[in-house]
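Hi X.,

You mentioned you wanted examples for the new student's onboarding notes, showing what a folding record looks like when two proteins sit in one file. Here is a clean example. The first protein comes first, with its sequence line followed by its structure tokens.
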Amino acid sequence: MNQFYTAESVTEGHSDKLCDIIAYSVLDECLSHDALSRVACEVLTTKGTIIVAGEITSLFEPDITQIAHSVLRKVGYDPARFAVQCLIHKQSPDIAAGVDCSLERRRDLGENHPALQLGAGDQGVMVGYACSETPQRMPLPVVLAHRLTSALTVARKSGMVQGLCPDGKAQVTVEYDEDGNPLRLDTIVLSAQHSPEKPNDELYWELTDKVLTPALQALPPDEDTKILLNPSGRFVLGGPEADTGLTGRKLMVDSYGVFAPHGGGAFSGKDPTKVDRSGAYMARYIAKNLVAAGLCGKCQVTLAYAIGKAEPVMVEVDTFGTGAVCADDCLAEAVKLVFGLTPAEIISQLDLLTPRYTQTAAYGHFGKPEFPWERTNQAKILRAAVI
């Protein structure tokens, strides 16, 4: 029996994403001046107010108000309409002690091996996913949803569609055949904030021509596809004026939607000693390389860590019955041989001290070829380890 899967995305002007971009910009600014900065930055925004809170330990003191105003301006909001409140203090010394000297080193289990230098910044479960149905090795509904919101933003900023405002959402439902292959587009939902003077008919035609058509080339709508443009009928009030925003509230938009579970920890505003971020990137890196190696058609990799401990407490691989060479537990053992899984090793392998996180804040963290965790340079090594 055919199945239906749905994914959603939001534009950079959505209230939650605005908060993520501010938090990531603070992180990047700290890392660009002090690569060893410890950052856990949270942002809340509502009508006329932005609150930035969290823990920052760095040799550099970021100008958070200036960063917030710069983000507002780039996204398309008037900074003069927002007051910025900062509530920042240093990282807990208890957490810092566990990160700076791992449990293994404190128990003299790893001597002075550099891989065991850092302990995990928190406990948690991280999930990575990859599949073979798109060139990005991401689920097709996720790819299409992000393309729609990206195209909507491009149409606004380039002036291709006049009268658009920063906020927007997209949702894509794809019908899959009995073998699990994408078959057709079932439903498209696109909500675009607009000026009150914009006629609905003109808006709908331009969204269809300038956004839907270029974004959905990989799987165009058919005569039975349901297309819902601004189904509420009017979308004039948007962004913080209409909805309170908060960092980390778009966990599934940031990752894999309904296709994989989420460990629970957000990526937002966290430096890579926090395994919520670095572990999730490594899990994706591993899953993508397993699929690229031809060892499975789709794959979920789960890592679990304990605060202060360098080595993960769990490494699990699930190929959903698509494994082509050996059982899932065999693949998990190969993963342990090929990949370094301590925080220090992950940071080194994926170059996570380079300030690039603002680029990940909107339109998904995965499937973008410019990021190190999207490389498939370990595929041949993985395959050799198994065969």
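Then the second protein repeats the pattern, sequence line and then tokens:
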Amino acid sequence: MIISVPKECKHGETRVAAIPETVRKFAAAGTEVRIEKGAGEAAGYADAAYQEAGAVLCDSVAAVYKNADVILKINAPEPAEIPLIPKGAVVLANFQALAEKERLSEFARAGITCFALDLMPRISRAQSMDILSSQSNLAGYAAVIRAVNELDKAVPLMMTAAGTIPPAKVLVLGAGVAGLQAIATAKRLGAQVFASDVRPQVKEQVESLGGKFVEVETDESFETEGGYAKETSEAYKKRQAAAVAEQLAKTDIAITTALIPGKKAPVLITREMLKTMPAGAVVIDMAAASGGNVEGSEEGKSLVVDGVKVIGDSNLAASLPFSASALFARNVYNFLAPMISREGGIAFDFEDELVKGTCAVKDGEVLK
């Protein structure tokens, strides 16, 4: 069996789907691993390290795809890559399957089997394979670090002979994996941290990390069976907007992380709310690529709106490519390893809930 790892071609993507550590494990299991030259360079993994781990280096994407049985990628292959992928090959990646359903039909027509790792079921057995959690964790950390670097004031309380500098106030909207890590990071840096989420049951988690929960009273439930947030009612949106607006007026850094799987991100911060924030405040919109939690934010851009810096970045994990690649690669290995035979072949058990839950395209059909 041949496992192939091409260089990511999506603009701004620095991660790689396999690292020397996982290549060594795949090779020890009897598989041939091919790596496109330079695939790990942006993440700090040299070609020589892959060779030493047992990989075969390929000069081009066409060469790395030739006769491939399994292809590992961070993001779904781009349209130009699809003709290079052998019919019957298996691709594992973040396909953003719920939001990009139309793209899946291209892989179905090409006879490619796709495992959308972004659909990994949220069960205990899958925790070591969950790419969304591993990457969101790093993204939440990176969001705070970037915001702090953009802020024009100190973050922790400082008592000096020249006077006292009060701690910066941070507001995190959305207390999922990314949000919780953002709360923890901001708290470690000495900020006063506040957080809001449509799921009142996360209050305990927020407070355990040292944050203060911005409560919005409701009898409604906005959590899916898988633990994700879902769309709220109009009545709740109005109450939430009022609570957020009140807190934003006192906020130096706001981090927005709210996503609804398969839908446009909810707008949580309007242009009018931005006007009330202190001059020099920084907002990081981690949902910018899905429509944005901040009115007017744009993916990949830093804008100044009424004196507030608004940064749209939905791929913050890529700013920590060494660590992000390591976690992603281990997620992939943990998913594939149980299916590899002693002879180096692979067999997917489509009755297994993890396989069934992530398989998005099979036998020419889109399954999700």
